[in-house]
Structures are given as C-alpha cells and as structure tokens.
C-alpha cells in the first residue's frame, strides 16, 4: 500500500507557466497590440502594477512569448469552452443487425425497421450476415442480401464500408446521411 502513495507522489504535476513559474531570463511581451523584448523581471513588474498576471503563451519560441492577462479568468473561460464542446459532442455508436443469407421477406422487413430506427437516432449500423454449414459456398447470395438492404436504406443511409468477409461472417457498415 505504501508503494502506491510513493508512485503517486513521484508523478510530476503540470505547472502553469504564470508569474514566478516562468524560468526564462528574457521574454517577448505582447500587450496592448505592441511587442517588446524585455527581461522577465520587468515584464512581471508591469503585470504586478496593472494587477494582472504574466502568462507564457509560447514557451518554445525564441525568446518565449508572454502576455499580461487575468489568468484566473482566462483559465475559467477555457474550462467553460471545453465543457460546452463536451456537451455538444455526439457519441456515435455502432449498432448491429444480424441476418442470414436465407432470410425471409418478413424477417427482412423487421431487420430493416430496426436499422431505420438506429439510423434515425444517428448511430451507425453494422449489417452482419452469418453463414452456417454449407451456406458459405454461396457467398454471392449473402452479398445480394446485404446489397438489397443497403439499396432499400439508400435514402437515409450511405454505405461506409462495402460487404466484406470475416471468417464465416459477412458484414456491411451503414452511416446516417447528414441533413
């Protein structure tokens, strides 16, 4: 148990390159639309006089580029933007619809309705066709079934991956059309 705490303690913490954490001797200060090269101490003094923070925006540049800004406010705004992006992000799932090469028309319609439901929700659909026994010798029949399903769903879906064999299975991936 003790070794775990030591391992956690050894992990380096990310230090924000702000104010006293800036190790460069000279910086290129950008403030009020002007660029000026000066010592870090002078730049820090200017930031302190204004009641703001000196923030290193490009540490790898020669000399490093710094700005005078309210670091707490900038960090809060960045976190807010990230949270908004995560909220607007849609996670696309791949739903699977299983079929057989000798599928009947009623079962075909049932599978088609399931695929339509998944596509309307914005998910991708993987049409999976499993060959059993001697059916594997008639892969062309299986390919026709998958192509027929893709053609019937053509108005709401586009084929993302053509019919492909994988062992004793053949699959085709459909993605919903935009708009």
From TrEMBL:
<comment type="similarity">
    <text>Belongs to the IF-3 family.</text>
</comment>
<dbReference type="GO" id="GO:0003743">
    <property type="term" value="F:translation initiation factor activity"/>
</dbReference>
<keyword id="KW-0648">Protein biosynthesis</keyword>
<protein>
    <recommendedName>
        <fullName>Translation initiation factor IF-3</fullName>
    </recommendedName>
</protein>
<dbReference type="Pfam" id="PF05198">
    <property type="entry name" value="IF3_N"/>
</dbReference>
<feature type="domain" description="Translation initiation factor 3 C-terminal">
    <location>
        <begin position="92"/>
        <end position="177"/>
    </location>
</feature>
<dbReference type="InterPro" id="IPR019815">
    <property type="entry name" value="Translation_initiation_fac_3_C"/>
</dbReference>
<dbReference type="InterPro" id="IPR001288">
    <property type="entry name" value="Translation_initiation_fac_3"/>
</dbReference>
<dbReference type="InterPro" id="IPR019814">
    <property type="entry name" value="Translation_initiation_fac_3_N"/>
</dbReference>
<dbReference type="InterPro" id="IPR036787">
    <property type="entry name" value="T_IF-3_N_sf"/>
</dbReference>
<dbReference type="InterPro" id="IPR036788">
    <property type="entry name" value="T_IF-3_C_sf"/>
</dbReference>
<keyword id="KW-0396">Initiation factor</keyword>
<comment type="subunit">
    <text>Monomer.</text>
</comment>
<feature type="domain" description="Translation initiation factor 3 N-terminal">
    <location>
        <begin position="18"/>
        <end position="85"/>
    </location>
</feature>
<comment type="function">
    <text>IF-3 binds to the 30S ribosomal subunit and shifts the equilibrium between 70S ribosomes and their 50S and 30S subunits in favor of the free subunits, thus enhancing the availability of 30S subunits on which protein synthesis initiation begins.</text>
</comment>
<keyword id="KW-0963">Cytoplasm</keyword>
<dbReference type="Pfam" id="PF00707">
    <property type="entry name" value="IF3_C"/>
</dbReference>
């Amino acid at each position: 148990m003790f070794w775990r705490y030591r391992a956690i303690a050894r992990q380096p913490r990310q230090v924000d390159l702000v104010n006293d954490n800036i190790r460069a001797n000279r910086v290129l200060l950008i403030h009020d639309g002007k660029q000026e090269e000066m010592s870090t101490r002078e730049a820090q003094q200017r930031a302190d006089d204004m009641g703001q923070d000196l923030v290193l925006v490009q540490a790898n540049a020669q000399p490093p580029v710094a700005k005078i800004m309210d670091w707490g406010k900038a960090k809060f705004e960045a976190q807010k933007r990230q949270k908004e992006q995560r909220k607007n992000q849609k996670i696309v799932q791949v739903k699977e619809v299983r079929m057989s090469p000798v599928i009947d028309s009623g079962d075909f319609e049932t599978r088609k309705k399931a695929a339509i439901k998944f596509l309307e929700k914005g998910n991708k659909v993987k049409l999976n066709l499993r060959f059993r026994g001697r059916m594997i010798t008639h892969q062309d029949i299986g390919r026709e079934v998958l192509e027929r399903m893709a053609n019937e769903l053509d108005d709401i879906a586009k084929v993302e991956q053509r019919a492909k064999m994988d062992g004793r299975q053949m699959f085709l991936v459909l993605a919903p059309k935009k708009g």
